[in-house]
Write a structure and sequence with these properties.
By secondary structure, this protein is mostly helical. It has one domain (about 10-85). About 55% of the residues lie in helices and about 5% in strands. It contains two helices and two strands, in the order H-E-E-H. The protein has helices spanning about 10-25, 50-85; strands at about 35, 40. The longest helix is centred in the last third of the chain and has 37 residues, at about 50-85. Residues about 1-5 have low confidence and may be disordered.
Length: about 90
């Protein structure tokens, strides 16, 4: 498993187990993560739960990428207008 911000830490697991045992809560759940799109439980080595969520995630990434390109284009246009205003006149 690669190291990421979503991977569990031994210290966090220890703290959770300590809190659970001190409060007396019995937890029979297997370790899991949640789908980044819909929030349903997924195994620790997965990020998304279904093909539908994968498609939605790809659409979201494409939308973010296009928005970033638009910001770059607007910034370049602004800088070009500023340059021509200062030095072109």
């Amino acid at each position: 498993m690669k190291n990421s911000i979503l991977s569990p830490s031994p210290i966090g697991d220890f703290l959770i187990q300590t809190i659970i045992s001190s409060v007396g809560i019995v937890c029979n759940m297997e370790p899991h993560k949640h789908c980044q799109m819909c929030g349903s439980p997924v195994p620790m080595d997965e990020t998304l739960c279904s093909e539908k969520c994968r498609e939605e995630y790809q659409k979201l990434l494409k939308k973010r990428r296009n928005r970033l390109y638009l910001i770059y284009i607007l910034m370049a246009l602004f800088l070009a207008l500023l340059f021509f205003q200062l030095y072109g006149g």
